[in-house]
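Write out structure tokens for Response regulator receiver domain-containing protein.
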Amino acid sequence: MMGVSPITVRSWVNRGWLPATTTPGGHRRFIRQDVLALAGQQRSHRPAGGRPLRLLVVDDDPQFRGYMLELLGELLPDAEIEAAADGFEAGVKVVEFLPDIVLLDQSMPGLDGASVCRRIRGVPQLAAIRVIGITGHLDRRVERDMLAAGAECVLHKPLDVAALRQALGAKNVAARAGQVLTAG
């Protein structure tokens, strides 16, 4: 109804912004009027730019993808966060969801992260999307491929949360181009 991920809704409930009841099975239920009231507040509290920060997590590992959704929901509770399981789904979601930042795994079946990044960079209307590469490989060639494709930096798995915060908070993307962030 509001076009946000379940993580975002959970964050709203935890912050007390959206009243909810819980069923015996642990599912949350909402009153339609409460949701509509929150939707009106969200529109009125958005920055002059229009909408909240949008992030897209792209990773073929469902456990890592779930971890990232939870982590980003905690780090950026006001953000809208979506996920894609592979490069093809990422292409569809980038066009439909129009994220501000894509957190993109390099090693995926079908289209790898560098291929997805090149396709994003190849569309002028998507040029402002920030791409942060993620890899579980310690191979410098993988990093170079992601950076050459247009990623602003590459983070390593297991993910260093401080490095993720630093990458997400980067103000000057041009100054960071070519930087590789590794777990300490």
